[in-house]
Every structure is written in C-alpha cells, then in structure tokens.
Batch of 2 targets.
Target 1
Amino acid sequence: MQAPDELTTPRPDGFQRVSAALLALSHDHPPLWLEVAARTSQEAADALGVSLGQIAKSVVFRRKADEQAVLVIASGDRRVDEKKLKEHTGPLSRADADYVKARTGFSIGGVSPLGFAPIEGAPAPLLFVDRELFRFDIIWAAAGHPNGVFKMTPQQLAALTGASVIDVVQESA
C-alpha cells in the first residue's frame, strides 16, 4: 500500500488553524506533522529527539469566577503550581477534556498556545508562559493535534501569544 502524499493529505482542522495563525504572524517555522502521536511531553520529546524541558506543554484550567479558560504554557519537565497560578487568576478548578475542547477548539494532547477556535460568547483563553521555558534556546509546542508541533524561541512564544511571563511552576527538587 502506498503512503499518502503529505502535501495532498488534508490535515485536521486544529493543525490547519495553527498553520494559518503562524503564517499570519510571519513565524519562520511552519508546524511539522509527526509520524507518531505525541500526546504527552515525553512522547513529543522522544519523537523530536530533544530534552523533556524543551516541550512547551499547554495546561488548561477553569477560572471559577467566570468560567474563563486559563492556559499555562510550561516546560515539559515541570509541574504547574496551582497556588502560584491562583495569585494571578483567582480560584481555579481543573478542566476536563470536554471543557478544553469547547474553550480552545483543541483536544487534550494537541492544545496549541495559538490558533484557538472562536467560541461565541466566550473570551479567548487567558495565557501565561512560565519563565522556566527561557532556560532553552529552542522550544516546541503542540500545533493543534497530537501529531503536530512547531518550534520557536521562548521569546517568540511570548511575542506570538501576547502571554504574560510569570513564575508558575513548582520548585524543582
């Protein structure tokens, strides 16, 4: 059986939205389509041959006051400290898969920091980038699908998304 031609095989909607957003922002690196799904930071690091910390994972929370999505982009080797995050957002709760999909347009495992689906009556997610990502020259983020990723510098991530850069991860042991 012949493998489908990458240029003619339609990509999922989320991947296409991220591709269009990156193009509109004149980002130098279009998203890559991986041969394997990378639903976790470790899977992405393994597929790309980079360190776990270079994966810019997206973690979504639900702000209790108004149900707004809060998206934290953190290094794959760090855990988000909800107490630190609450100092910037107020009380939070965990976001389940249905909420994440409804508020970002992406499924868990492929949540991109940009290219969100417009949701009528709901604001775009509130974005934060953890400062620990700045340990790396190059980082990789999900591109709207578990098989999609794109590379950038941490500075480009902050500029492309307009996210606030804060300290929001647990102290490393």
Target 2
Amino acid sequence: MRFELTTPPRLSRATVDREEPLRLDPERLVAGWPKARVLVVDDKGRAPIRLDANDVYSVVTKPGPELGAEPPANASLLGEQDGVAYWAVRGAPSLIDGDDPSEWQDLRARGADLDATSAGLMVSAVAVLGWHDNAQFCARCGSATEPTHAGWMRVCVKCRHEEYPRTDPAIICLVHDGGTGDSAQVLLARQPVWPPGRYSVLAGFVEAGESLEACVAREIAEEVGVTVSDIRYLGSQAWPFPRSLMIGFAALADPAQQLVLADGEIAEAFWLTRAELRRALHEGDWANEDGNPVLLPPPVSIARSMLDAWAAAD
C-alpha cells in the first residue's frame, strides 16, 4: 500500500523569493532598504509572533530604516516579495521600542501555526543567523571571518577562505507493513531523552559518502534491527535545530522481525495498527493495552505530516 503526504510539512512552506542575485547587487540592496522589513530573532531562536485579525499567526517585522540608513553588516537577506526585501538580524525585545516580550516565540512552539510567508521567513532566519553565530572563525586558519553577500557568505580576514551556510541532511522514515485497512501496522520508537510516552518514526543523519536510501536502510537496521525494502521519498522540511534538513521516506518491513534496540539510542519501539494511530491522532494522547500513554510528534514536525498521511491512507 503506497501513500503520499496529504499536506506540505509545516516548515517547508514559503512564499518569499530568496533572490540569490540580489545578494550580489549592493546598489539594489541599498535602494530597496527604505521599504525593507526586518525580522529580529533572539539567541534562543525566538521572534515576535502575533495573531492577526483573521486569526492567523504571523511574524512581526520592523521597518528597515529603524536600523539605520542602509542594511547593517550583520543583517542577512531572506529574500524579496512584492518589491519588499526581507532581512533578519540577531536581537532581543526592546521595551523602549514598545516590544512585548510575551509575543516572542520559537518555531517549536508556534511554527505549525504560522502562515506560509512567516514560516519561510522564520525558518530561514533561524538557520542563517545560527550559522553566523558558529562561523565567526575560519575553519582553515582560525582567524576571524567577516560577513558578505548580504549575509550568505563569510570570508576569512587573513587567508580569504570562504565559508557558506551549512545544512546537515538527515533521513526520517515511516516504516510500515504495507497492509491495508485498520489492521495495517506502523513502527514507532522513543529516544531515551524523550519523556515517557513520546514516540515518533525513526531518523538519523546521513554519513559522508552515503546515499539517502542507503542511510535509511542502515539507520533502521542499526536502531531497531529491522531490514526494510521499497524505500520511497515522501518530502522534506528544514529543521534548523541547529541546521538539519529532514528528508522523509517510507519503507516496508515485516513486523515479524525481532526488534533489537540500539543501546543508548532507542529506549522503546513497537508496532501499532492504523486504527490505534487514528485514535491517537484524534484524541491527542491515549493509552495502549498496557496503560502507557502514547504521545505523537507535534504538527510542526515532518514526522507528524508523515503519520497523518499514513493514517489517512486506504
């Protein structure tokens, strides 16, 4: 039984054009600054988010000129939409400027509720600003680096080595038995650091020189001792915590295989039916036959999009 994602992962939505050529056009950047909007993100990945008159959550941006006559050196261009350039800077709530600290929220807490424009802006801002925080020294000689290309490159002041924002690819895979109807089964697991009752699909980082499909097979085998087949791509979502790209797959496995949990990585793993998953999605949390609560990933995660799609299939 094949299935596809029924809705885009919440953090994969975006409407602003990244406009890479604009990053290399200083005159146009300065010319567009009077109309520019700036998203301020603090060092914990929080930005001001407000519920508008249409009951939609949106990020709150500031006029560019409030930061100066031209784009600050530490600002990163997020893109352009309808003739307005959007930028991001590191900052914090300012009571003097009338900011309300209670409005500042992060992507984990509010990302699933944001409109598509705000989601794309905030994901990009959190990712690129986080890279700047950790790329201030040259990886080759250790000297300081300076931002350029509207915040999308840093150059070593000594050896001129160029650094660019990095993304760590990670696979995330919904393993199921290929069955149909309410009795079909899906494999869920819990990491030791998660609270009791919190379960999700399996995931892991792609190693150097490894294909995505090979990573899926390796990670599933290493984490729960299960051999998978029919590995299929479903979709992807940025996960800037701090710089991951979650690449979603589905794969088939036989539930009769013995589960062998990776010590220190997987605390629990089990198969549950589509009927049970639908119940969990409907009720938010529930209890299995052993009386243990089963809590599913929040809507902001691509894991939830995958589980929603599989539950709705057939």
